[in-house]
Every structure is written in C-alpha cells, then in structure tokens.
Amino acid sequence: MLGNNRGQSTLEYIAVFAAIVGAIIIFAYAKLKPAVQNVMDSSATKITTATSDFTAE
C-alpha cells in the first residue's frame, strides 16, 4: 500500500513539473519570437544592402 502512494505522489510531481516547464517554454517563445524576428530582419536588410553595394561597383 505504501509503494502505491509513493508512486502516485512521484507521478503527480512529474506532472506538475512538466506543466510548469511547458508554461515557461510557451512564455519564452511568445516573448523571444519578436526579438529574434527583429534581429533576423535587420541582418537580412544589411546583407541585401551590402550585396547591392557590392554588385553596383
């Protein structure tokens, strides 16, 4: 009987931990996506400008 309670308790902790980690991942993705997108857009613009300057010469 004690083994079943302990196993159930462990599974509950794992489920709560997984839910917390999932929430953190979703939050981080929502907050970091715009920042990463801005960096990528800026880099793409700089590359395009450099390529245009290089081919114009």
What structural class do you assign from the helix and strand content? mainly alpha
Shape: rod-shaped
Order of helices and strands: H
- Low-confidence stretches are none
Radius of gyration from the alpha-carbon trace, in angstroms? 24 Å
Distance between the termini: 82 Å
Biggest sheet features: none
Number of strands: 0
Helix content: over 70%
The average pLDDT is 86
Beta content:
under 5%
Helical region count? 1
Structural notes for this entry:
The chain has 57 residues and is mainly α. Helices cover 96% and strands 0% of the residues. It has 1 helix and no strands.
What are the key terms here?
1 helix, rod-shaped, 57 residues, mainly alpha
Could you give a short description of this structure?
This protein is mainly alpha-helical. The protein has one helix at 2-56.
Explain the layout of strands and helices.
Layout: H1 2-56
